[in-house]
Amino acid sequence: MHIVITGANRGIGLALTKNYRAQGHQVTAICRQSSPELEATEADIIEGIDVSQSEAPANIAAMVHNVLGDTCIDILINNAGILRHESLDNMDTQAIQAQFNINALAPLAITHALLPLLKSGSKIALITSRMGSIADNGSGNYYGYRMSKAALNAAGKSLAMDLKDQDINVAILHPGMVQTDMINHAGDISADTAAERLIARIAELTNKNTGTFWHANGEVLPW
Question: What are phi and psi of 191, to 5 degrees?
Fold first, then answer.
């Protein structure tokens, strides 16, 4: 299989790359800046990509096509994202806009740009968060992150409906509280464990359960 992963230089993206490479799959790893850990996986690395920039989707599509040639993408994992902390006492609309651009708009634009490289049976995984669940919000705050992930969830559901007849299926995946730089390693599971669980959910994705909002542990989450 050929897997394309954004935000692949560290954290969950790096762990996914390692895991898929260990299984013998070809991985195209997309990132702003590579890392020694990523280079050690011997993945095909495309660096210098800032997904917040409007030209990024077209650049990614061109570079991935150069890597693949006539080969199609089996799994596209939109993993790149950012987290900021806004509250009513600490409001920052520019930070909220940045989270929308990177967490919601970029995955949709990248997926759209790469659609010509997908085929029947291809899978799209959106790495989201249960913080994007409106029903599950019991603590407030984190306006930009919550709003951007809710928007990503909505985009994922629409993609699932629009691509269902082409048998291109979409998983909307919460990885859990993962020990990554994003949350200062304060999570309760490692990136490797999260990656293993995410890969299992992607493997279970079919045309019958496309558009599902899953916790990586298999639990179906409320919208």
Answer: -60, -35
How long is the chain? 223
What are the pLDDT digits (tens) for 114-150?
999 999 999 999 999 999 999 999 999 999 999 999 9
Say which residue the tokens 């968060």 belong to: 129
Q: Which residues contact 52 (CB under 8 A, 6 or more apart)?
A: 98, 101, 102, 106
- Which residue blocks in the chain are alpha helix, DSSP H? 11-22, 36-40, 56-68, 93-99, 106-114, 143-163, 191-204
What does the alpha-carbon distance between residue 43 and residue 14 come to, in Å, rounded to a whole number? 10
- Whole-angstrom distance, CA of residue 152 vs CA of residue 124: 13
Rounded Cα–Cα distance for residues 162 and 32 (Å): 30
